[in-house]
Amino acid sequence: MQQNPNPVERVVGLDVHPDSFTAALVRGPTPRAATVEKLFNRVPIDQLRRWAEKNTTESDVLVLEASGNSFHVARCLRDIGRTVEVLESCHLGKLKEAHANNDKISATRIAKAYLSGTAKPVWVPDSKTQERRDWFHSYTKAAAGVTRISNSLLSFLSDNGVRLEQRLIDCPPSERVELIRAARAWSPSQWQVIEIKLADLEHASASEARWSSLLAQDVIGDAQLLGLVRLCGIRDVVAFALGAVVGDIRRFAEPKKLVKYVGLNPAFDDSGEGNWSGGIGGHGHKELRSLLVESAHSILRSRTHPMAEWGRRLLARKGELRLVVAALARKLLVSVWYLLMGKSDPVKEISAPLSAKIGKIISKVGEPGLRHLGTNRRELRERIEQSLLAGRSYTLDPTRMYAPARAEAPIPSIGSARAPGT
Asked: Which residue from 9, 163, 181, 220 has the least number of CB within 10 angstroms?
């Protein structure tokens, strides 16, 4: 095994659960030479801070696996001056032995995985980013719930020979009832089923609307996230998702590192005789990548935007829509990096498309959100426009190309389009 490039005197492996934790104090330069000095089994989690102050020192490195409450535990330990690393769970899961496993074995395995130098540490989000991640997860669940319930209702209608031309989700609740009632004669039991599904859909839609309002309010209150809506294809949800997933932009030294983190760089296998290159699925952050692909589709639908024209020319040459939207999404993400890093020019005026986008964001906030903010639509629009004019902008440059280093990836099908990076 490799030796950790930054050797320490002692590593403390923590196997953390919601109510308790197990700790293994391991000393040694390599996993083979390491010895377990002491084990603490199933200590109540509310004693974590006191236990760490008593049994560990500032020179120790405390390591734990990324799991449900690992980021909270890491922040608590860092508050008392301890060095903490959270390791990627994917790698540690492969080290688990199927025939023998308990909390003490897991804590020791986590410590030795860190000593090997092969376990990848993950970034521990600050409390605000963690809160945004929790909100975004709840929003995506609510949005998925609306889609699931709507599809279930449409499936029931289809099974009974009813195909609606108008989308139910776009109709007010009262119109949904009349639309379905007029479709055919329903038996009393069938109508009860429809009423249950309609009630579920109304509840799910209301939940999604409340989460959407909360996300929009947070974007409006953060000048950095609000500045992202200047980019074509980005509105409140995508801007919020970028803030939740990316967090501190300074942890990405260059745009291609952010591209790789999200998973918009093409996968490849250049080992042996059979070389393979593929798409952008299977790695990175799936939810954010999907949103950026949707943003790329919206850019492509624009009639006058320079990036839309670039995308259509690329589509004419390659004939693959998926390749084009992946290239646009990658270019858009790199422009996000430049904008968040402040490498951009000031905004001089609010264009008509940007003004329309502001109006849609205010609609997402809704009347309850406006009351919470203590303002009205006109005042909120003025506040948003002032914030945008005081900030900086970034214009996508279709002439510059994204060219990943050969050591990271060859130019595969998506890269063969010479997808732009900035």
From this structure: 163
Say how many C-beta atoms besides its own lie within 10 A of residue 321's C-beta: 12
CA–CA dist 382, 405 (Å, integer): 44
Which tokens hold the place of 391? 């900030």
Exposed (0-12), middle (13-18) or buried (19+): which is 378, by Cβ within 10 Å?
exposed
Which residues lie across from 393 on neighbouring strands? 345
How far is it between the farthest Cα atoms of the chain? Answer: 78
Output b/e per residue, 88-114; b: 16+ Cβ within 10 A: eeeebeeeeeeeeeebbebbbbbbbbb
CATH of domain 10-122: 3.30.420.40
Torsional sign, CA 293, 294, 299, 303 = positive
Domain ranges of the chain: 10-122, 128-220, 223-347+391-417, 350-390
Residue 76 has which token pair?
Answer: 């608590």
Can you tell me the mean pLDDT for 149-154?
Answer: 93
Query: Is residue 336 within 8 Å of 369, Cβ to Cβ?
Result: no
Q: Are strands 83-87 and 121-122 parallel, antiparallel or unpaired?
A: antiparallel
Residues 69-97: pLDDT tens digits?
999 999 999 999 999 999 988 777 777 66
* pTM exceeding the 0.90 threshold for the entire prediction: no
